[in-house]
Design a protein that fits this description.
- The chain has 469 residues and is mainly alpha-helical.
- 56% of the residues lie in helices and 3% in strands.
- The chain is globular, with a radius of gyration of 25 Å.
- The strands form 2 sheets. The chain has a two-stranded antiparallel ribbon with strand order 1-2. Strands 3-4 form a two-stranded antiparallel ribbon.
- Helix 11 packs across helix 12.
- It has 25 helices and 4 strands.
């Protein structure tokens, strides 16, 4: 077990760090209440199941409105019109799902569950660009949420039968005598073991075990066609048998590298890159002892001394999704409307349900370049209500300034800036930067107008430190 953090290190900053990494940040009141719970109770509270979220009705999940027989008798022009209608329906549903998911991230009871779901979405990176069905992507999202803190082995077995994954990695094309190796390769390389822990023969033989996997996309259902399955003997990782896909997964989970691989990815996502081998060894031992249940690993991680060391705190660059959700949470405002989120995600470089490739997003330093940094500032300026951009995107009137500032802050620029930096920044700023922010605010007459307050807020969010969590 990892050395636990000592009681003296449980500060308000530590509580804010826990809420920022396990979820999507918190308001000052939430940080205070979490700190008062104590570390052990605060960590336990993270895993209390949230109440059910609002149901999402998707038009693309409804049964076909046009019978197949009618489609066959349509003219080419009528079929093209129907195709465009279905595509438009799908686009609107994707917009709806993305807006719903960001809303769940901003919602305090579900933030930690949604952060874990986001991790698995990046781990089993599947894109609607190839799947082409919002309803099927929604089904996969619900699957990842169901297993977010649960059993990793069960999740891998479930994802192998997930309709979106079947299409994404070409299991649909795999049959007896002509196995497709895409899923078998990524199962080991990206999902469970990592490069160097399997052979090309292992890929070829395991691919045969996954033949016969099919899906009916419109119904979002998995099909297994026994006649298309290769039921002959296979040799996989030194074992011989008439293995099924689940048998292959069971053998993979017998390999020591499996626990180490997923624990490294979890630590990198929640804490910092290039974790020490002894740290991963301890977490991997916990995972194996827990029969691959994820929750004990996360609880050990969040309670460990290493999770609160200097290299772990305020050292990650916020992902675009983290930036959107955490900014809205800390400013206590609603997320932008769904139609605006589409544009924001695209300009920031992280479109939910559409990772760039099977490896997912590279993360951390890759999030920031000249273009995306400008888009980040434009987004936070919009939330602050600075300029005219917020009107173009439908943000106007969303910022609850009465929750963010007191009468005292309106008459004291020191308190205003310190209040904003405390609320918004996970990393400390130097005294010269603080002095500049205060001096800029002092240029306005007292009490500060809404315009002056919004300008000060925007300047705090333009700081480099604001990009860190």
């Amino acid at each position: 077990m990892l050395p636990p953090a000592d009681a003296a290190s449980w500060t308000r900053d530590a509580a804010a760090h826990l809420l920022g990494r396990a979820g999507f940040g918190a308001t000052p009141l939430e940080v205070e209440s979490t700190w008062k719970l104590g570390r052990a109770r605060a960590i336990a509270a993270l895993f209390v199941p949230p109440p059910p979220g609002p149901e999402l009705q998707l038009a693309s999940a409804e049964p076909e409105a046009t019978p197949r027989a009618d489609v066959l008798t349509m003219t080419p022009q009528e079929r093209e019109t129907l195709k465009r209608q279905i595509q438009q329906q799908n686009r609107l549903d994707l917009e709806k799902i993305r807006g719903w998911w960001i809303g769940q991230m901003v919602n305090p009871p579900s933030a930690v569950l949604e952060k874990a779901t986001l991790f698995w979405h990046g781990h089993f990176a599947t894109s609607v660009q190839k799947v082409k069905s919002a309803a099927v992507m929604w089904q996969q999202n619900q699957l990842l949420r169901k297993f977010a803190f649960g059993n990793f082995r069960d999740l891998v077995k479930a994802i192998s039968c997930d309709p979106a994954m079947v299409v994404w990695l070409d299991l649909q094309q795999s049959r007896n005598g002509a196995p497709n190796e895409n899923f078998a390769r990524e199962l080991m390389e990206l999902f469970t073991l990592g490069i160097g822990h399997y052979s090309e023969d292992d890929i070829k033989n395991s691919a045969r075990a996954f033949t016969g996997y099919r899906t009916r996309l419109r119904q979002a259902k998995f099909d297994y066609i026994e006649q298309q399955h290769d039921d002959s003997d296979k040799v996989f990782m030194g074992k011989k048998g008439r293995f099924s896909g689940d048998d292959i997964i069971d053998i993979i989970f017998e390999q020591p590298a499996c626990a180490e691989f997923i624990c490294t990815k979890l630590w990198t996502f929640y804490a910092y890159e290039e974790p020490e081998p002894v740290l991963i060894g301890s977490l991997a031992h916990t995972l194996r002892q827990a029969n691959y249940e994820i929750r004990p690993v996360l609880m050990e991680m969040f309670g460990s001394k290493a999770f609160y060391r200097d290299k772990a705190m305020a050292t990650q660059i916020k992902s675009p999704v983290q930036l959107i959700a955490q900014t809205c949470r800390t400013l206590e405002c609603n997320p932008p409307p769904s139609f605006a989120l589409q544009f924001i995600m695209r300009s920031l470089g992280q479109m939910l349900l559409a990772p760039p490739n099977v490896k997912g997003w590279d993360g951390n330093r890759s999030w920031i370049n000249t273009a995306t940094l400008a888009s980040r500032i434009q987004f936070t300026d919009s939330l602050a209500g600075v300029g005219t951009v917020e009107k173009q995107r439908g943000f106007a009137g969303n910022l609850p300034l009465e929750k963010l500032v007191t009468d005292e802050m309106l008459n004291d620029c020191v308190k205003l800036i310190d209040g904003f930096t405390f609320r918004l920044l996970d990393a400390p700023i130097d005294q010269s930067t603080r002095a500049d922010l205060i001096a800029d605010a002092e240029k306005y007459s007292k009490p500060l107008s809404r315009t002056a307050v919004k300008e000060a807020l925007a300047k705090v969010m333009r700081l480099p430190e604001f990009q860190l969590v």
